[in-house]
Design a protein that fits this description.
By secondary structure, this protein is of the alpha+beta class. It is 18% helix and 36% strand. The strands form two sheets. Strands 3, 4, 5, 6, 9, 10 and 11 form a seven-stranded mixed β-sheet that branches. Strands 2-1-7-8-12-13 form a six-stranded antiparallel β-sheet. The longest helix is centred in the C-terminal third of the chain and has 16 residues. The protein starts with a strand and ends in a 6-residue tail after the last strand.
Length: 245
């Protein structure tokens, strides 16, 4: 799963790295060592241009998907992750898988691992980092209509939210570290699959997800993990001894 991640890039940098447009009417989050569920986060979405071509665009939404049929935008349900096994069937996610697929770019993400078998054994935070400088997670997003704003054409009448898809962790022979870290893996997208994933004209989201899953372990094979502590109010990471080495 993925419940915390870091982004070390300003929106301008993400725009260049992902070849994506920035919106003048959007306030993008600043870089941070830790983004939490319900925080506003930057994600990549696809738009169809006037000439029919695909346009990449950086958007901002609440991390924790709120489906369009929800009565409120303030749900506390744990929807920051969407299980790949059920995304095509659960009402909260199936509409987004068909037409509102996103890419969530991160610099790294965090997992917690218990230091022993006991129920009260302390947990150690681990950071998972890519071989280069960015991970692109397969995600979903949704629009929610704010009925307090009468004009449907007002950009503020629509609120965005997003989720990161997850899958079973790699087998031990594919990545021993990730296998022993957690039973779920956030689904990474290979760079060459991003355009297909975010294309709003492609409605067969289930087949796209199958393709992403088939490549995911290979994409994650170069990731590295290490135990860390986050200190000084989300401003510094400190390496610590590995309690389960």
């Amino acid at each position: 799963m993925c419940g915390r991640f870091s982004v070390g890039f300003e929106a301008d940098d993400l725009s260049r790295k992902l070849d994506a447009l920035l919106r003048d009417d959007t306030v993008y989050p600043s870089p941070a060592l830790q983004f939490n569920p319900t925080d506003p986060v930057t994600f990549l979405r696809g738009r169809t241009g006037d000439d029919g071509s695909l346009r990449r665009e950086l958007a901002v939404g609440r991390w924790g998907l709120i489906p369009s049929f929800a009565e409120s935008f303030e749900s506390r349900l744990p929807s920051w992750n969407a299980r790949s096994e059920t995304a095509a069937t659960l009402p909260s996610f199936k509409g987004s898988l068909q037409k509102w697929r996103a890419v969530v770019p991160v610099s790294a993400y965090y997992e917690y691992k218990k230091s022993g078998p006991g129920r009260k054994d302390p947990k150690q935070r681990y950071i998972v980092e890519p071989a280069d400088d960015i991970i692109t997670f397969a995600g979903l997003f949704a629009f929610w209509r704010d009925e307090s704003i009468a004009d449907r054409k007002d950009p503020m009448a629509w609120r965005l939210s997003c989720s990161i898809l997850t899958m079973p962790t790699p087998p031990v022979e594919a990545h021993e570290g990730l296998h022993n870290l957690h039973d779920r893996l956030p689904v990474p997208l290979a760079p060459g699959m991003i355009n297909d994933w975010i294309d709003p004209e492609e409605k067969d989201g289930a087949s796209l997800l199958d393709a992403a899953l088939s490549e995911a372990y290979g994409v994650a094979s170069s990731w590295k993990l290490r135990p860390v502590d986050l200190v000084e109010g989300n401003t510094r990471l400190v390496e610590v001894p590995n309690p389960v080495a």
